[in-house]
């Protein structure tokens, strides 16, 4: 065990880049911003390629930003810590915690990717209803860049020393010294790498295929991304105590409906004369 500990990569980077009083800027925040910036730049390329106005993308970006943030926050509160937040509902949407009779600025510590996915879909639905844009046209393009954004977010989790993996004796095991002294799978980096590979695949499909039915890329995205998430959960520590003893943890249970939807989109019958060009 001692030899394994010495051979492991030791990670003890503080999650804060800098702080002023109770206000702090974290690497996670920077990664979150990079996720949105990279998504916008790539989506702008797609919109220009298909002769769509940038103003439409600007509107979509607002819906996606709000949907992601609200969905991810509410998802964490409802899926993982409902017992606490049902008695503290204001803390779901406010970056404060009520401690010893006073409010303390804590930021949003707790975002769930499945909640973010639901929030994004709701945001797209509202955007499409307002702008009369086809829902599957948007999703087929937006999901191309979402995996890359997810890779940035998981890198932020690595800086936070959170969503850690199970103990491991592999040569690339990481000791998250902010958590304990046990060499573990760098599960955040596994997930980030898988998301980058999914992004590369979807990007190539979009640029090389000329005839795809609506929802095809969306379906591949759902199967690959949430399938990867389901599999990687087997080498992660459970995030909440109530998941102990469950055959599948909350992350896996929430992934199953997304994979099922992807399979439906991929294999649903669609008339050939209605297929569109990418």
TrEMBL record:
Organism: Parapedobacter indicus
Transmembrane portions of the chain: 27-48, 60-82, 108-128, 135-153, 187-206, 215-232, 252-270
Main location: membrane
A Pfam entry, by short name: LGT
Bilayer disposition of the protein: Multi-pass membrane protein
EC id: 2.5.1.145
Classification via InterPro entries: Lgt
Binding, a 1,2-diacyl-sn-glycero-3-phospho-(1'-sn-glycerol): 154
Protein's name in the database: Phosphatidylglycerol--prolipoprotein diacylglyceryl transferase
Keywords, in A-Z order: Cell membrane, Lipoprotein, Membrane, Transferase, Transmembrane, Transmembrane helix
Keyword Lipoprotein: yes
